[in-house]
Write a structure and sequence with these properties.
single chain; 422 residues; mainly alpha; 4 domains
Amino acid sequence: MNTYTFKAQTVRIGILGVLFSLVALLPLTSEAATCTFSRDLQLGVVGEDVKCLQQYLNGNGFVIAGTGPGAPGKETDEYKALTQAAVIKWQIANQISPAQGYFGVRSRTVFNSLLSGGSQVTNKPVTTSPQSSGNALIDQLQARLAELQKQNNAVTKKPAPAEDKKIVKAAKSDTSAGADARKLLAEVLEMLDEVEEGIDDSDDTAGVKAALGYKEDAEEEIFKGLRFYVSEQYSKADSRFEDALEWAQKALDEVGGGGERGEASDLLEEVEEKIDEVKDLIDEADADGKETREAEEYLDEAEDLFADAEDALDDKDYSEAIDLLEEAEDVLDDALDAIGKRGGSDVEDMLDDARDDLDDARDDVDEALDDGKRVGDAEDLLDEAEDLLDDAEDALDDGDDRDAKKLIKDALDLIDEALDEF
């Protein structure tokens, strides 16, 4: 069972089996925890003052975590990434700049002012229309979700892995009204769990801040989607959940690229491109009168592995999907060997082109500087891109074409980002 917090309201949604029921929709208190801060608080700090800060944040809607360490009632004395993320949201709400999650003199001054009778800011849902929040909507959600729970005999705990797979497969065959919306909701909530883990593990303050913004956008779309779902406007719910999925993916990209899920998705795309490439090469070899039977057999095997990997990805068995796709890549290499087309020249050409793009970008930056223009972080971004290209060259030397190609793509993204700076 996954627990997801909609700012001032908590909805417990059982992702597995795409069943969900309402646990609580209770407004958070606006009372401030009584804390005394005599030092600056930041990542790595440990102490009772950190725990008090977490209690204050949780009590005013800037929730540290939905479940586990840092959640309301489970505050800790460790200042980690999730605490930093909540402080950033509190600082933004109270117009404290820079909002970087460093609880220093400026933040303590604002905090003390709030305790002394200043206007207390809490993190509550944005009201977009008369029906976007309030008791009427809560009652509607409670009634509709209770009905769904009864209809679907919702589970109350996360199943073991073997049971998990059976439930997901059953959900795939669900043809009832709203099935697509439920599947999308399941996917976005699972991704948001990964975002929470990524935020907690990340030391990149800028990345965490960006991820929080995208995560908040995803939360808003989920809440809007639920409003449509409970009124049985399933196509509109689909659209909102799809938007939420896009925002969640952006958040995930900011704090680690998505783990196994992201790796499997990227690899699926690469293998699909390679299958198309091998097909074209086999057609060319056949047109030239070369023997292609063995290569075609390898291609058929690779396509079967690819189809199995797609099924594994649908079942959210990401490690299995990665194994199948890597095996498919090896079989495709065998197909290329069978027609004498194996080689890394395409990746080498890709690396050469990327280095040319980097040189051109550096020339553009130098020209902008000569003209007295501001170039922001462009130079630093280009330095990072050059490091990635060096790593790609090392990977290519080690025969790891896939890793080299990914590094080159990442470098090209940084080059584009640098050019956007001016």
